[in-house]
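user: can you give me the structure for this one chain? C-alpha cells are fine.
assistant: on it. calling the predictor now.
[tool input]
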Amino acid sequence: MASKSTLGYAERARKHPNRLAKKLFETAEAKKSNIVISADLTNTNDLLALADELGPYIAGFKTHIDIVSDFSAATVEGLKSLAEKHNFFIFEDRKFVDIGNTVQMQYDGGALRISEWAHVVNASVLAGEGIVEAMAQTGTSKNFAYKGDRGLLLLAEMTTKGSLATGDYTKACIHAARKHSDFVIGFVATQALTSIPSDTEASDSEDFVVFTTGVNRATKGDPLGQQYQTPEAAIGRGADFIISGRGIYGASNPVEAAKLYQKDGWDAYLARI
C-alpha cells in the first residue's frame, strides 16, 4: 500500500482529497500534536473533565461511549463543546462488526447517536465488505447531515497478543478502503501497511491516515494481552496519530504526562519527515 508518511501534515492537508482527513492533519499541525487520548472512563463528569484538562495538548479524544454508565444528551453536548473549545476531533472506538443494515442503525441513530458527535469511528471487516459499503452509503448520502465531516477507520491490525487481524484479513481491509475511499479515511494499524501486498492498485492521490493504539512510554504490556510500543517506535513504523490511554490518564499528573507524550510524538514525527 502506498504511504505518504514522509510528508509533513501541512502538505498532506493541502493535497488530501478527503475533507475530514484534511481537517485531522490541519489540527495536528496547528497544535503540534499527534496524540489521541484513549479516555476509558465510565461516567460523564470524569470524561468531560479529562477532555477539558487534556484538550490543549491532544489532537483527538477517543471514547468507548458504551462504558459511560450515565450517558445522556449532556455527555454528547459536553464532548461537542469541548472539541470545539480545544480544537480536537472525537473518535468513537465502537468497532462496528455486524450486517450492514444493523450497523447503519447503530451508527446513525439508536441510543448513542454516534454520528451526531463522533467525527471518526472504526469498523472491522470480519463480517465482510458489506459493513463498509453500508457505512459509506450512510456517510456519503446527500441526506446525511454531517456529510464530509465524518469518516471511517478500518481495523486492519490490533496490538493485542494473538490477534487474528493479519494476512488476508488486513489485505481485505486495504481492498475495502480503496473501494470506499470517499468515506474510509484510513486504518487502525501497527504500521503504515506498505509491506502488505494488495490485489488492487493505489491511486496517485491515495493517502490513508494510520492510527496506532497501545502507545505507552514506560510499559510493554498488561496482564490481559495488550502489547505496547513507545511513541517513537509507533511514529517510526508509520503512525500518523498515536493513541495512549492509561499511560496518560493513569499518571499521577495527567497534564504533565500528556505534554511528555505530545513532545515525544511530535519530535518523532519531525525526525520522520
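assistant: here you go. The CA atoms of residues 73 and 112 lie 9 Å apart. The first strand starts at residue 35 and ends at 39.
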